[in-house]
Amino acid sequence: MDNWFKKATKDEESTNFFLVRLFWVAGIAFALVVFLALIPHILRWCFYLFTGEIPSFVTTEKLGEIGAFGDFIGGVLNPILTFISFMALIITIILQQRELSDARKEFQRTANALEKENIENTFFKLLDRVDTALNNVTKNQKNGRVVIDNAVDIFKKSFNGQKGVQWPHVGKLKEAREETYANNNSFNYFSAISSAAQLAIQADNTLPSPIEKNFYTELLKDQLTPEDIWSFYYFLRCNKSDEELKTLIPKFRVIWLKMDHTTLLESSDKEPFHIYE
Asked: Where are the domains of the chain?
């Protein structure tokens, strides 16, 4: 019975299908009741047509037969009327189940809309945080994007100046990072980009239409320059393990598309991006 109700209230088409069937059953039952109620009159007219006499069903001799016939009609009508009442109850339950189902769907749509709104509000707050962090990047009386753009050249020169040093690749990157980005608040900027990128991916997953795919990630990418993204990659390269990078590189795929991968320092840095080239 529970599965029957679930099927009947699955959607509007299923509900209408079951209701039509129930109305047909109730209609047939009602027609049968009407037919049984008319049987005495039909028999009377049949008697009249064949004999030309109008029968009397209320004579003393016929009262016993009429009472028996009435008991028969009552015995037949009682279960039929009970069945019709049961059908009406079933229809009422189905309609209530459908209303509850529609209410649950409406609540779910409302919850999804609120979740999307909260994520969207948080995302745009993070974009503001990215802008604020960029403005706070300062070095040699310069600030903002000028410092980030100059830092790319400084980072490359620092790294290339360690060619003869027998350090692991990551060690050289960290040394170049310290020389380039220390004491200029750029780490806060890259951390803000990381937070915004991860939330943008989460927000993209709430979009129902494939046309809007990567909408929030694209917004973030448009706000960043290739130099920002290049520096952001090496920020992750210096601060994340290889296992973490294997997860983050594909996750931030849309952002990396704006970066010229040929400008990366060594072939080992380019390997994670070969699938995008």
From this structure: 2-113, 136-276
